[in-house]
Amino acid sequence: MTLWRLSNLLELDLSSNFLRGSVPLDVGNLKVLISMDLSNNRNLPSTINGDLNSLIYLSFAENSLQGQIPDSFGHLTSLEFLDLSRNRLSGVIPKSMEALSHLKYLNFSFNRLECEIPTEGPFQNLSAESFGSNEALCGSPRLQVTPCKAGSDHRLNRAWVLMLKCILPAIISAMLLVTLIIILVRYRNSKRKVPIRETSLPLATWRRISYYELRVATDGFNESCLTGTGTFGSVYKGTLSDSATVAVKVFDLRINRAFRSLDSECEVMRSVRHRNLVKVISTCSKEIFKALVLEFMPNGSLEK
């Protein structure tokens, strides 16, 4: 690029241009460059050529930079102004920057930097504004950051944090997987235990009768309508809304065999035709209520 061949260029301002990509190594050709402003762009990397020994002003502010501040910044020995604010920089501030003896303005605010702020060189004269909104930084109380703990404790805490970052997601994933397996197993077992059949007879031969209609027909399953009891439940006489008189056989669901009895009777009634068999009019099968609705036979028994 022709721009990087301008060896006598003193100032370079490419701010607010939505630039992307990396700063070419050819920037090192600008030997006398004293000011470079690349702020307000997009994703420009924070790496800078250490040959820019004349550089006094450098701004990478508001560039969505990620990663750590490179040690090469410590080689810009003429630097007086450095702005890396409002990025996503993480990690520690390089100790090499203590060599920037001419540095008068430094802005690392609104990043994700951590650990101890260097204490030598220009850092002795910097204020709290240089490091604001970096919650994990520690250092001198005058910088309004958390005081640093003893070196061993600090390293131990960092080790715990790193371990939690690695292990905690794996533990959570394993727990979610186990929970999902338990739910699937319980669901499959529940389907095996209580097979809910809404129809054991062909729909074409079946009249739809609701639980509410059966309750009305038997006056709330009143004892006055009770005609008999058997091994698996009770039989009530009822009158449907069309004035048809029926026998309602209500199964006792506390008896496990009652489920099989309902299925068995439906299978038999569906496959067998005989003039002495009671005609099945309908079934009502819910999770908490199961009944057969049959043709009423005066003086007969549904248990025979």
TrEMBL record:
GO terms for molecular function: ATP binding; protein kinase activity. It comes from the Eukaryota. Keywords: Leucine-rich repeat, Membrane, Phosphoprotein, Repeat, Signal, Transmembrane, Transmembrane helix. Residues 221-304 form the Protein kinase domain. The chain crosses the membrane at residues 159-185. GO terms for cellular component: membrane. It is found in: Membrane. InterPro entries: Kinase-like_dom_sf, Leu-rich_rpt, LRR_dom_sf, Plant_receptor-like_S/T_kinase, Prot_kinase_dom, Ser-Thr/Tyr_kinase_cat_dom. It is a single-pass membrane protein. Gene3D superfamilies: Phosphorylase Kinase, domain 1 (3.30.200.20), Ribonuclease Inhibitor (3.80.10.10). This is Protein kinase domain-containing protein.
